[in-house]
Amino acid sequence: MKSIPHTRSREAEAWLKREIREQKARYRKILAEQEALTPKRDRWIADFLERIQTRGFHVHFNIIRKIRPEEVPVKPKRKFKVVF
Amino acid sequence: MARPHIEPFVDRDVSFRKFTMPGFPKGMQYKMLSLDPENGACSMTVMFEPGYRQPPGMSYTEYELFIMTGSITIGQKTWGPGSYFMVPAGVAIEAMSSSRGATGLLFYNYGEPSFVESDTDHARAERNKFAAVNAYDDMQWTSTNFFPATAPGCLVKVLHFDDRTQAFTFLYCMTPNFWQDNISYHDCAEEAYHIWGTSWMMQFGELPTGGYFYRPPYINHGAFGCKLGTLAIGRTDSRLYNHFHFNPWTNIEENRERAASRIQHWMPDLYKWVNTHGHNHPVDFEYDHGHAHGDAPHHHGDGRVEHAHKPKRRRKK
Q1: Within the 44-83 window of chain A, which residues sit less than 8 Å (CB to CB) from chain B?
Q2: Is 80 exceeded by the pLDDT of residue A84?
Q3: Which of A2, A11, A80 minimises the CB distance to B89?
């Protein structure tokens, strides 16, 4: 029994409503901040794709495999996002 | 859980505010980290003001409390930083107080926060699932036992493990100069809060002390790095499997499809059965039939997950 059925009070409903509204605003702010991070992220991704070819890609714990150049993925043309 | 993707969020950027949910005593403040708009389940940073007093009572939903600073007293015992409580729905805890104040994290797992004054358990409470431990003093760090596992230097203390869903709550730390060069996603939702330290993820940048995320399933995260070390608390809502890869641009749909393809290859017989049986509601003989609150959504071959069941009539023998 994770939750016991009960009736939610009007005050609790109002509290939830306000929190949901604020969470939507928080989410929109995160989207904007993450969009602004795009140039830095592009650099980090380029560095990562370089490292997995030189130092290697973590397969499991300390097992590392070097990725061959032909295995490196190519960026698709569609819009890229990290927050869903 | 149907919470949105909140990542990253740093609670140090916002102020505490008074917690005004009905039933709760005065003297508690909070910062909302994430909230499920459907059922009100939520994660919050909380502050108990010096002199806080709470009578014995219970919640209608299971909750977890982790103390980060200060101390609280429950009954006769005082609990300091690192203390963790798993309180099942309906389990009454003794009177609680905090003479000098405390901060912590409070997770309501299946419904909105509630407090009902009571010195006895609710009739449906599962008292045997109550747990309390000081994770700093009484538990030691271990390597993760996943396969595939996180890179060396990421250690855990498992605080709670749900044997039905395999959801778990855990402290984790990353050692100084930790690095893990892969991209991960999981079949479960995952959330974490940085108690101390800064780590870095390729998608989201740096997450400092007070940093938090709630991440729904199949969202890419990583590569990972941590210069000076990090102490954090994490939670999942079901079994965690590390689907590692190195394509930074895959999306949720592709990641989910890959996970399903892996099930097809790892458990071919089960995969076939689920796809051909027509009744997508398997029953575990060790548990009830499964229409209780908080149970997994399912359908009956028609794709209608949001259906209702009438109570079954028992035949007289």
Answers
A1: 44-45, 48-49, 51-52, 55-62, 64, 67, 73, 75-76, 80-83
A2: yes
A3: A2
Average pLDDT over residues B115-134: 96
- Say if residue B132's pLDDT is above 80: yes
Q: How far is CA B233 from CA A77, B18, B192, in A?
A: 37, 24, 5
Residue A8 gets the label, from left (phi > 0), alpha (psi -120 to 50) or beta, of beta
Q: How far apart are CA B102 and CA B117, in angstroms?
A: 21
Q: Do A67 and B204 touch (CB under 8 A)?
A: no
A11, B247: Cβ pair inside 8 Å? Answer: no
- Give me the sign of the Cα torsion angle A50, B254, A84, B240: negative
* B62 three-class SS: coil
Q: Are B6 and A27 in contact (CB under 8 A)?
A: yes
Radius of gyration of chain A measured on its C-alpha atoms: 22
Asked if B292 reaches chain A (Cβ–Cβ under 8 Å), the answer is: yes
| Residue B284 structure tokens | 């575990």
Q: What is the pTM of this model?
A: 0.93
Query: pLDDT confidence of B314, banded at 50, 70, 90?
Result: low
pLDDT digits (tens, 9 = 90+) for A20-31: 999 999 999 999
Tell me the ipTM for this assembly. Answer: 0.96
pLDDT at residue B293 is higher than 50: no
Taking the C-alpha atoms of B59, B69, B47 and B132 in order, what is their torsion angle to the nearest 10 degrees?
A: 0
Number of residue pairs across A and B with CB atoms under 8 Å? 145
Q: Which residues on chain B are in Cβ contact (under 8 Å) with A16? A: 35, 37, 40, 112
